[in-house]
Amino acid sequence: MEGDIHGVRIEPRVLNFFHTVPGKIYTLTINVKNVSEKGCSIRYYGPENTKNFHLKVKNPEEPVAPGLCVPASVEYNATEEAEMTDRLVLTIDDEILEVPIFTYLSCPHLELPRDVDFGTVIADSKVITKEISLINSGAKAGEFKITYNGQKHISFTPSVGSIPPNSMQIIKVEFVTKIPGKLEETLIVEMEGVEPKELTIHGNVCNPLIEILSLKDEQPIKCISFGNTYYGTDCTECALLFNNSPATLSFVAMIDESAPGQEMGIDMTSTTTGALAEEDGYNSRHGSINALTSLITTIPNQGVLQPYQKIPIFFRFSPRWNKAQVGWKSKVIPPPRKDFALFVRFEMSGSSKGFSEITVVKKKGHFSTTGKFAEVALTATALPVLLDISPSDSLDFGECPVGESVDTLCTIRNESFLLPAIFQFRRIAHFSARPLNGKISPGQTQDVVFSFVPKQVGTFKPLMLLDVLGQTADTYNPSLTNLEVISTLSTRVSGHSNPVTVVPKPRFNPGLTPYITNEVGMYVETTFADVDSKVPRNALAGSTRVHLHRIYRPKSLDIEDKKVKVAFPNDRPHSVRPSERNQIFRTPFTYMDRYNYVDPDYALTDDEILTRRSHRSYYVEHLHLIQDLKKERRRKREYKLTANQTDIGLQPAAGLLPRPLKLKEIKSASPSLPPPNEEWRLLSTQELAVAEKEAMSKPVQEGLNAVPTTDKEKADCKKWLSPQNLHQIVVGPPTIEFGKVCMRSVSQKELNIINNLLDYILVEATIDSRELRQSSPLSQVVPPRSRAVIPIIFESNTKGNFQRSVTYTINGFHKNHVTVMAEVVCVGLELSTENLVLMPTLGLPADAGFRGVITLHNRLNYPAEFTWSPDIGERGTAFSIRPATGTVNTNSSLDCEVVWHPSYLAPQDGSFMLIVHGGEPLKLQCLAEMGPTSVSFVEQRIAFGSVPVNLTTTKSAFLQNTGVNHGYFQVLDPNPFPGLTVTPVHGVIPVGGVTELFVSLTPDTVLKFDAHIQIAIKGSRTVDLRMGGIVESPSVDMSVVKFFQLWWCYCGCKSSISFKMFNKGNTRCKLEFDLTRYKDFSLSFPGFQTTEDRNYQIMNPGMSTITILPLQTIKGELSFLPLQVAAYDFLMPVIINHMSAPTPSATPSPPTTMPSVKKTFHQPISSQPAVGDSP
Fold this sequence. Notes:
single chain, mainly beta, Immunoglobulin-like, 9 domains, seven-stranded mixed sheet, six-stranded mixed sheet, flat
């Protein structure tokens, strides 16, 4: 057996202690079997690490027989959390073998499938789900995390979590079939303590493709040409409709009226101007062609295709011309030639954004959109029937007796040079044509003989109708056509056959007849004009005298006499019969009128006729007279009403309205013929878009029923809808994109339902996700031609991508879906920029600083609270921002103003942390850029001149700014030498302004100085200021030579001594007199003390001060006002420029107990004694 060595078999070959935990003991057993044919010696030797490993075995003393084994056990004591290695030694006779020992800490162990295969699916934006199992076969729970960085719509639920030991976690892999193409994505599955593993996702997403193939070679076709055809005919072309996808599809044929390159019936052979003019006015004046939905059709126009199924599809072109109704004087002209280039597309039913939002993208010979349809172009030309009958379309055959015929030759010309014409004459009475039917080639003629064969008497003016025949489609079989009348030409024919009165020939009785008959014969009413030729002599046999047989008549007969009829002798009985009174019968012998008898019992006599006629005329004249009188009276009344002097401001014929017609006077137009292809009528994108727009303009129907309630609703909501009906119901958008949604926030979108049908529909949505459980109502009965919405409410507590399919059902039969997608994120804000640069703004004052605006955008659906936190470094910060805290509402923005407070020492950079409560912080870097400036001193040097020692002398220096930006300065060394101070140390010089610097000198030593100071300008060069002067010691004298002698004075009285003081130096001096110990004495310098001196004297009782200008003399007065008896002899301390004289010898103490206060300057600046010293 494989693995046997030296005649023994070791099981196992390696000792692995898995999932060890400190503090526990683990045991493994090992067996060594003798598989050789002879005995052998087998012995075990323990591991080197006897602290953690212990071997338990009983080594045999004798050789082990074949087939027997020697067992042993190894114990592992896990004293620490570490992995160890060792070995177990075996001796087989003289051979040494080692069995490795390994220990492993307790850790999870991840097992998962290598790939997930979604197979071949169609791109219908549906969420498909696969489940995989993550198995932790280890002894320790493990935290897992699934990471995917691709661009496909793939999500995992859950994507993070913990799997207990020896457990399994079901992971849902969700994929949105939205983008067609190959799916080959790799994701990383991580688990703590385990190396990351890869999971591959396979799939193929294809477009639900419909193709139109040629019937001959089954190749895709782009255009179908019908060629030329007459108005009234039907042209049919056949193709194949192919479902080139693995899914069952419902299709609907539509006319795309918004496709580019479409031609809606223009004459391509005419000029552009003529075509535009004809398009503008021809159709409205003379007629119009039938609507596009009946002009073009497909059979079938809707249906269901199984995967990879091919069905025949028939395209039919049926042009019809509808004449305009413009009155009885309109001229009938043939319809114009019209060329068509139309587009028919086969679109799949499903959820859509609407008919008004379709965008077309051409791809690989077919057109695809978000609605996914195939499109084919149809070209055809509709031609009029142009037959002309010459020489005229009106034939007059004149008079023709009955039984005879009249012929005329005409020519029929086919003026169409593209199509032949098949004609046939209709049969009518008395008229005929030869040949009765035939076919005329394009541009050729045909001779036709028209005949008038009257069969009866009368005038005949019928229309000879010439029918033009064409091929029309069969109603039941689209592949068959029938020959039917498509056009009729009328020829007006006329002819008359007048009645000819045939007077029967007289038939006289031959020979002599018996007297009892007394007859002449039949039809013997003969005029005298015909008596010689037609009357035999024996007709006069009634007379016995011969001379009577000779007819007497005048020599000349006029026209009236020729019409007189002959009264034969033998027709005496006819004289008493009723006859026409206007006929005259005269005897042939005497030419006298025959006697006629009128029976008054049966007829009116001549007198009675005249009497009756006069009686009737009397009443007729009387009635006419009464009517004329009434009309005259009416005219007079109307004239009196209107013919007056009152003017009511009416204009003739102004405001006249036509007489309203009554219902019986309104004649309806003759009903038009139904349009062709009504059973296979196509939908139109323009009509659907108009209907959708009309429905969208209406307010959303609210308070709709969740279930049908009325009988009408119940009947409509049970109907099975065809694909064409379903296509007229818009449910969308197909993808409800919430975008970025904050956790624990509520966001709402609307699922629009537009019902373009004339029936009620029931729409029910199904929600299977807890994130969408707040959506309500989910069932609505939508009325006809209206719009409704289903609110989709989304709320999630889990961060990550969300994608689900929401299934909806129409009328309980037709299912479809929409996809809901969202990205759940934390609350967050966006900065308009992360690096804000502040620039100086011209026109702002210097204290306004540098200002800028940072905009906070909240593009999420939840208000975001924020707080700005400045980053204060070692140099601090000179930036501020307002508002420092606040809230940015949903889908809004907030401007925060950042201000840099400029100074020379202010740092030009800084940063802020934007702390979003519940979100990620953001950092804003701020930088202030100084503009160019020009700063200089008005005077480059300050001359101090003579300066007093220990007194402060202040001079001013002026910095001027001649630039366009504010300047910021700093004095580099504000104390160039002791006693000299420059203030302020830093500041600002405004644009066009001046800033004053104060240079104060308080010297404590007599000296001569010449110094300079440097002023640094921020962002510009350094400027210098020079200064110089001499420090002099004070020199003051008094008019009192030695002392003040006041002598004596009564208590309560006042004694004064005046004196003068002289400043002999070139600098001012300040003297301070200390009389705080001597309250009875006081000094005053009327008119010479400044406000400062007086304030000092008020604030310090007993002290007096005076400032003497150079070379100035002032007057003073020492007053003594004792309050008790006492004698005084003391030295009055005098301090000049804050320096006191040397301390004199002690003097008697005054009676007052107040201490003496003196200010002593220990560094005198002059060797002269102070004023007021005792001799």
